[in-house]
Design brief:
Strand content: under 5%
Bound molecules: iron/sulfur cluster
Structural class: mainly alpha
Number of strands: 0
Distance between the termini: 38 Å
Low-confidence stretches: 8-22
Number of helices: 6
Mean pLDDT: 87
Largest sheet: none
Shape: globular
Length: about 130
Amino acid sequence: MSDAAHPATAAAPSESTVSEATPKSADSLEVIRKFAETYAKRTGTYFCSDPGVTAVVLEGLARNKDELGGALCPCRHYEDKEAEVAQAFWNCPCVPMRERKECHCMLFLTEDNPFRGESQTISLEDVKSLVSG
Ligand code: SF4
């Protein structure tokens, strides 16, 4: 399996000079956004016709990456998030997505999905404004 676009390996180390004015998650959000665009193109899947769905999922993945060290699927409940990250089944792209193109978060939708949009891209500005607004 190629993990070239996997968010867990695509991130730069965050040894930082990050000031309080520059939240750490800004970097992670961009890493996750780029991963999602690349992965959608590679798998022939599309983002949701409602970009608010895409933005919320990307933001959730970035937050989990920051807080847990892995892009754990944000659309599920976990008893022990750290253990789930270590197990990797629900690290994005999760096993159901990798094996069957099943993304219950509606981040990656197959061509025949009625909720899919036309886009495999979303700008960082759009993600930020959609999650803040
Ligand atoms: S369902 Fe899987 S592919 Fe979809 S966002 Fe969650 S972890 Fe990623």
